[in-house]
Amino acid sequence: MLGAAPEYPYTIAMTNITSYIAEVGRSARAASRVIGSASSASKSEALKQIARAVDAARDTIKVENAKDMAAAESNGIDQPLIDRLMLDDKGIDQMIEGILQVESLKDPVGEMSDFSYRPTGIQIGKMRVPLGVIAMIYESRPNVTVDAASLSLKSGNACILRGGSEAFHSNQAIAACVVQGIEAAGLPGTIVQLLNTTDRAAVGELLKQDEFIDVIVPRGGKGLIERISAESRIPVIKHLDGICHVYIDDEAEPDMAVAIAFNSKAEKLAVCNALETLLIHRDIAQIVLPQLAAKYQEAGIELRGCARAQELVPMTAASEADWGEEYLGPILAVRIVDGLDQGIEHINQYGSQHTDVIVTENYTKSRAFIAQVDSASVMVNASTQFADGFEYGLGAEVGISTDKIHARGPVGLEGLTSQKYVVFGSGEIRHR
Amino acid sequence: MLGAAPEYPYTIAMTNITSYIAEVGRSARAASRVIGSASSASKSEALKQIARAVDAARDTIKVENAKDMAAAESNGIDQPLIDRLMLDDKGIDQMIEGILQVESLKDPVGEMSDFSYRPTGIQIGKMRVPLGVIAMIYESRPNVTVDAASLSLKSGNACILRGGSEAFHSNQAIAACVVQGIEAAGLPGTIVQLLNTTDRAAVGELLKQDEFIDVIVPRGGKGLIERISAESRIPVIKHLDGICHVYIDDEAEPDMAVAIAFNSKAEKLAVCNALETLLIHRDIAQIVLPQLAAKYQEAGIELRGCARAQELVPMTAASEADWGEEYLGPILAVRIVDGLDQGIEHINQYGSQHTDVIVTENYTKSRAFIAQVDSASVMVNASTQFADGFEYGLGAEVGISTDKIHARGPVGLEGLTSQKYVVFGSGEIRHR
After folding, report:
1. Distance (Å, rounded) from C-alpha A408 to C-alpha B158?
2. A425: helix, coil or strand?
3. How far apart are CA A34 and CA A136, in angstroms?
4. Are residues B58 and B140 in the same domain?
5. How far is CA B346 from CA B173, B324, B336, B383, B414, in A?
6. DSSP per-residue codes, B377-403
7. B217: number of CA atoms within 13 Å, CB side?
8. Is residue B395 part of a domain?
9. Given this model, what pLDDT does residue B2 score?
10. Which domain holds residue B264?
11. Which end of chain A, C or N, has fewer beta carbons within 10 A?
């Protein structure tokens, strides 16, 4: 087909997608002006109405979700992906709970802070404002539709949602509830627009709408995110790998260390905040590693270790590549280190600046770890699995940023806003 | 030349620039680890030593600056640009004052805030951290070299500076003082690296170093900034137009309105925070416009007005294009509006989201203006000319951002940092 002139219907389809996406962008920009200055009360009302609409549409959502599940099964999609796709009553309850939790958060828009007088007499501070229009491009899990819509709305933004083709029917059913709820609160339904196409060209078109879209938030596999970062003319808040570490210090409390290292990996394997490489101080390794190895083995988790780890517990040898691997599954890399410095060096060299933990009772070493590990979430004596917006009290998250610009770590309401300067004067003029 | 094989020396030059820039990037990344964890005391010492070195090198700086001035004059460069290039003792004093002011600011790195307990028992908050490596690409004014270096250093970042060819000698002389000061404080001189080439290919190479550079800050003409935004693989903090407005409300105090509208334009013309379009409520226009017109005329400023403005004062007719023009010179567009709503609508339609002012005594209208005007700086009863980092108390600025992502308005220390999450636990594990 390469080099051949495109056939007529193909050209038409492209033209349609271009104009469709431009129209979606224009509507979103117009809607952003309305939601950007909507009162806290009307935003709360819209969120309550969305929760009500989702609750009332349980049967429809489940019927539509069953279509996606059937298609996924007949397409031979992997079981973990099918699990993430499924929406049962428990899943719907969680969506509703998520919406109501976002509703209960403080409205970030209009928050004013840091006002002080300058010697000239002007008083200067900041006001929190919405970004404008957010486009989310995501795969698989249909609950993202509701999380993204709730957070955008509460933070005064309009949003454009582009879900994965495998969740098409589920997403459409959920988005219908979202629009119904927004309109029931007297706001324009275009505040949240879910694209009605799974044509991949739509993504390319979205990335060009820098006039109408202020930020792109991709969620999905590394391939999707890399493609979007490379192509986008619009700023991207992105999440790449989650190569998370736990460093067990020689001054760790051993039972706590075992509990944290086990939970960080085994509580959930296929998540970005799961432990991927365990680092253990050489002087505590013989106490904690055998216990941990037994627990991991019971949980069906394979260990791949450095030479010193292999001396203590029989396991496969780790290759250099293992230190940079995000397994997202039942494999864990293990390295014995000489001390804190080597641990921090390992994390900064091989990690992905996502979430890293030290287990220690030593005050000075805990401070050094916090200061020197350059990751979005740095923890002392807690499980990596806490690194998400819900656990951090953000209500929900549109994603976890491994970028440094704008937003780092779980992105909730604050990450979807910006701050402008406000100056109160009493007639001051400047003399240069 | 198109299609022809590049000649041998040309190829060599390109290869050299590629490897030179890669080496600069690598050194900057290494230096960023040192400055990122440097103590407040050693950063202060470095800034004091830089100020001392600049003071001691006054004669050299003036000699080198004279070379640039001579070249600019013989190249027939515009007088305003030549003025910006000139460094006399007053200019050097201001550079030194700027360095010492940055030195006296609170160290932003390590600032911890917003810690609170979650129901799970973890305590979560944020810590301010450097971005890493900042690349500044700028034209003309050599004092940017010192401002950018001071702010980067204080905020714990390494920086790469690429000044304009017209200020090459001045910049090299200043950068030598900067490096000398840093080394006198026992820190590596590579924390601040000024490129030793004015080859334009160097900019293209810088924009590819996403492994070593975390953010690009361009300062200069619109062409430069658009080229950098389009080409860069690295996030850009940018400033486009400064189409600033003053809206004089019918409830403005007339003398204050005249003073602010005049100062906003006439205090300095060729700056991004200068007034470009004056909006006046129809009910106060006949009081303030004739007075203002007389003052502007005296200052040699041409008015271009809407039909209603022309009825009150003889002036050229403004075309549609005038509302979107950043004159940066002695021309001002004037429009009479029906009220606040039309004023806000005009600003949001034609403005560049830089700096906009309302002059009013009315409380409700001042609040509406602040909430509804979507600009980086929104002011009540003060001159647009206050919109800069020095006046806002940021010490200096690396630029004024008209973006919404990451930093808006004058970018000082805070804009060169990011926040990571810190979690303090006592052995908590997560149960999903």
Report:
1. 20
2. strand
3. 20
4. yes
5. 46, 10, 11, 19, 31
6. EEEEEE-GGG-STTTTTSSS-SEEE--
7. 30
8. no
9. 34
10. 244-386
11. N
Three-class secondary structure assignment of B122-148 = CEEEEEEEECCEEEEEECCCCHHHHHH
Q: Which residues contact B355 (CB under 8 A, 6 or more apart)?
A: B242, B244, B273, B375, B376, B377, B378, B379, B384, B387
Within-domain flag for A432:
no
**Chain-chain contact of B420 with A375 (C-beta, under 8 angstroms):** yes
Kindly report the nearest CA distance between residue A270 and chain B, in angstroms. 13
In a domain, B391, yes or no: no
| Per-residue DSSP letter, A166 | G
Chain B interface, best mutation among A117, A124, A373, by max B CB count within 10 A:
A124
Closest Cα in chain B to A421: B377
C-alpha–C-alpha distance, residues A190 and A179, integer Å: 8
Which residues on chain B are in Cβ contact (under 8 Å) with A431? 267
Q: Total structural domains in chain B?
A: 2
**CATH number of the domain within which B315 lies:** 3.40.309.10
A 343-362 residues with CB below 8 A of B?
A: none
Residues 12-41 of A with CB under 8 A from B: 36-37
Mean pLDDT value across residues A48-74: 96
- Shortest Cα–Cα distance, A411 to chain B (Å): 11
Using one digit for the tens of pLDDT, what is the confidence trace for A118-166?
A: 999 999 999 999 999 999 999 868 989 999 999 999 999 999 999 999 9
Per-residue pLDDT reduced to its tens digit, B236-247? 988 778 999 999
What pTM does this model have?
0.88
CB contact under 8 A, B267 and A403: no
Same domain, B136 and B78: yes
Q: Which residue among A132, A391, A423 places its CB closest to the CB of B118?
A: A391
Residues 103-132 of B with CB under 8 A from A: 110, 116, 118, 120, 122, 124, 127, 129, 131-132
CA angle B106, B114, A399 (to 5 degrees): 110
Is residue A119 located within the same domain as residue A224?
yes
Same-domain pairing of A230 and A252: no
The Cα–Cα gap between B379 and B377 comes to: 6
Residues in A touching B381 (Cβ below 8 Å) = 424-428
Encoded tokens for A98: 């998520």
Contact B36 A120 (CB under 8 A): no
Whether B34 and B122 share a structural domain: yes
* B49 and B137 co-located in one domain: yes
> Touching check for B310 and chain A: CB below 8 Å?
no
| Among candidates B120, B406, B410 on the partner chain, residue whose Cβ is nearest the Cβ of A406 | B406
Say yes or no for a CB contact (<8 Å) between B382 and A425: yes
Mean per-residue pLDDT of chain B: 92
Q: The dihedral of CA A80, A82, A85, A91: what is its sign? A: negative
Closest CA of chain A from B94, distance in Å: 12
CB contact under 8 A, B428 and A381: yes
Is B392 in CB contact (< 8 Å) with chain A? yes
Whether residue B202 is found in the same domain as residue B257: no
Q: Which residues pair with B281 in a beta bridge?
A: B337
Question: Which of chain B's residues have a Cβ under 8 Å away from the Cβ of A260?
Answer: 427, 429
| CB-nearest partner of B374 from A129, A375, A393 | A129
Query: Is residue A123 classed exposed, middle or buried when 0-12, 13-18 and 19+ CB atoms within 10 A define those classes?
Result: middle
Residue B14 has a pLDDT of: 52
Whether the complex's predicted ipTM is more than 0.85 is answered with yes
> Do residue A214 and residue A319 come from a single domain?
no
Which residues does chain A have within 8 Å of residue B377's beta carbon, measured at their own beta carbons? 420-423
Round to whole Å and give the CA distance between A270 and A330.
9
* Coarse DSSP helix, strand, coil percentages of chain B, rounded to the nearest 5 percent: 45, 20, 30
Asked if the Cβ–Cβ distance from B116 to A393 is below 8 Å, we say yes
Cα(A332)–Cα(A276) distance, integer angstroms = 5
For residue B394, tell me if it sits in a domain: no
